[in-house]
Design brief:
This protein has 6 helices and 4 strands; from the N terminus they run ββαααββααα. It is mainly α. The protein folds into 2 domains: about 45 residues, no CATH class; about 110 residues, no CATH class. The longest helix is centred in the middle third of the chain and has 17 residues. It starts with 5 loop residues before the first strand and ends with a helix.
Length: about 160
């Protein structure tokens, strides 16, 4: 498999990034131009992650980590959020009961659209009474809701 990163140059044309990328893009373009009628060509592409969205997401989660009272390890909070958002693989556990194992949100392993969908699902999960009770077990339901509301508001205005 050939990795190819393309970009739009200042003259408005697509090109490969770097010398190696230019050669790979030229080869790709040639393959497309030489396709015969009815011939097919398959390819995959990845929507690159957005650095600003990545920073915003982790800033939000850091803010939540600092406010919640259940988790002492940031990665365990992130695992809880992944499971709650359904960003998991299911594996058979003991007695045939499936176990949810959080998937990676690693920069290289998760493209932007999937990251956006995970972020949305995580936000939806955090508005549930279950998530709020898990994060703030020592306060009542109204106070838990206000905790999420304040956290959400802080990250909507920044």
């Amino acid at each position: 498999m050939t990795a190819l990163v393309i970009y739009k140059s200042e003259d408005g044309k697509l090109d490969g990034l770097g010398e190696k990328g230019r050669r790979a893009y030229a080869k790709f373009r040639k393959m497309i131009e030489e396709l015969s009628v009815g011939q097919t060509l398959g390819f995959s592409y990845v929507l690159p992650r957005s650095p600003p969205h990545h920073r915003y997401f982790f800033s939000k989660i850091t803010g939540l980590f600092e406010r919640q009272e259940q988790f002492t390890d940031f990665d365990r909070l992130l695992d809880f959020l992944k499971v709650g958002a359904g960003h998991v693989d299911l594996f058979p556990g003991q007695n045939g009961v499936f176990v949810a194992v959080p998937k990676s949100i690693n920069w290289e392993k998760l493209e932007e659209q999937e990251f956006i969908e995970f972020h949305r699902a995580m936000n939806d999960f955090l508005w549930t009474p279950y998530a709020q009770a898990a994060l703030w077990p020592h306060v009542n339901a109204e106070q838990r809701y206000r905790c999420i509301e304040c956290w959400h508001w802080d990250f909507q205005t920044h």
